[in-house]
Amino acid sequence: GCHTCSVTCKNVWTSREGMEYAWFNNVESKPGIGYPKQWENQDIWNGGWKLKGDGKLEPRQGSRLKILANLFGNPNLPEIDDYYEPFTYDYQHLQKAPLSETPPTARPISAITGEKMEKINWGPNWEDDLGGEFASRSRDKNFDNVQKEMHSTFENTFLMYLPRLCEHCLNPTCVASCPSGSIYKREEDGIVLVDQDKCRGWRMCISGCPYKKIYYNWKSGKAEKCIFCYPRIEAGQPTVCSESCVGRIRYLGVILYDADRIEEAASVTDEKELYEAQLKIFLDPSDPEVIAAARAEGIPEAWLDAAVASPVYKMAIDWKIAFPLHPEYRTLPMVWYVPPLSPIQSAAESGQMGMNGIIPDTKSLRIPITYLANLLTGGKEKPIVTALDRLLAMRAYMRGKSVEGIPNTAALDQVGLTSAQADEM
């Protein structure tokens, strides 16, 4: 939660007029309603896709005809107050203030109007480290089917960080929502971009994106979004957010997928099955048939080698410890998350240790499994439990190997991991 990625991204891409309020990358404290407010509640914003009665997909904000009908009065568009009114401070007053009995103060100034602000009411990290009252944070959509009242007490509260950027989805709703056809997904690397020459500022993409990661530049009248630092990617360098991450928690990797099966995967009836449906369209980069097909499509050998070595493929597909953010939106997002491990001391003290006392019972940890499932698997708890069990088993194995000098494989056996996999993890 250090926000280094947010600040470096801001300095590089959005520190200019018209984009003062925009953060291509931001880190949210959960539970919380996030930035913009309640972006996860599609009952309000109607982002993402919905499955119609005939099994076809349609943007939640409506058909093409409805989108065109709402062109001049979009009912699903966040306002500036849903983000925040960007501000700076009157630093010059600190130097030029006349002599007085009290120290001078730097009052906030709106970055939009240039006028002094009486009060700062919200910000992109307003809820940082559980800031604000629980009554506001409890509106978090991920609290569905969770007894959130019990987590309002200090003894039962929990905190996790959620770094967010454009998901560069396989089935992006923003592309389908744009009346001008200005948004496209690059075939060579999957990065979703906005053609600034074609964009006419209709802002339907903002409503269509369920993650609210497209922003309107009020200065240029164009839509802008995270470009995944494609100039750096093309030069063989990582994105700015990955490069500057203090904890080195971000991994970039190549994943091969079957584009012909995207619609099939996104059209699964049960929202809880969307995560596993997305897994099925990813291709094994070590499979000779996949390699032959990739070569026939003109994919360079260097990309195929990178796909074999991809840490993202290993975490998401091989080990199944990483998950997409809100797969129920049916966009097939491509930024995946390893769920956080909760503090285990309280579980140990209460005697809730499972797996022969080596690691705790996953369901007894501080962060509710249902909350993580609502966030990462469309509500399906089993994959989350399996991932957390594997992470805890790997931790126990490595502790025994490095501290006690005795690699204990009992926990690994129970979660279906080998010693080689645990070492690689």
In short:
This protein has helices spanning about 5-15, 40-45, 65-70, 80-85, 90-95, 135, 175, 205-210, 230-235, 240-245, 260-265, 275-280, 290-295, 300-310, 310-320, 345-350, 370-375, 380-405, 410-415, 420-425; strands at about 25-30, 50, 55-60, 85-90, 110, 160-165, 185, 190-195, 215, 220-225, 325, 335, 355, 360.
Structure description:
The structure is a single chain. The protein has 425 residues and is α+β, with helices and mostly antiparallel strands. It has a domain of 147 residues: nitrate reductase domain fold, CATH 1.10.3650. It starts with a helix and ends with a helix. The relative contact order is 0.12. The strands form seven sheets. It has a two-stranded antiparallel ribbon. It has a two-stranded antiparallel ribbon with strand order 2-3. A two-stranded antiparallel sheet has the order 4-5. Helix 17 crosses helix 18. The model has no long low-confidence stretch (mean pLDDT 93).
Pick out the low-confidence regions: none
Enumerate how many helices there are, as a single number: 20
Within the largest sheet, what's the order of strands?
1-6
Kindly report the CATH topology of one domain.
Answer: nitrate reductase domain fold
What CATH architecture label of one domain applies?
Answer: Orthogonal Bundle
Q: Roughly what is the average pLDDT, rounded to an integer? A: 93
Number of strands: 14
Distance linking N and C termini: 23 Å
What is the overall shape?
A: globular
CATH superfamily placement of one domain: nitrate reductase domain like
Task: Summarize the biggest pleated sheet.
Answer: 2 strands, antiparallel
What would you call the structural class?
Answer: alpha+beta
Gyration radius, rounded: 23 Å
Highest-level CATH class of one domain? Mainly Alpha
**Quaternary structure of the protein:** single chain
Report the sheet-strand fraction: 5-15%
Amount of helix = 25-40%
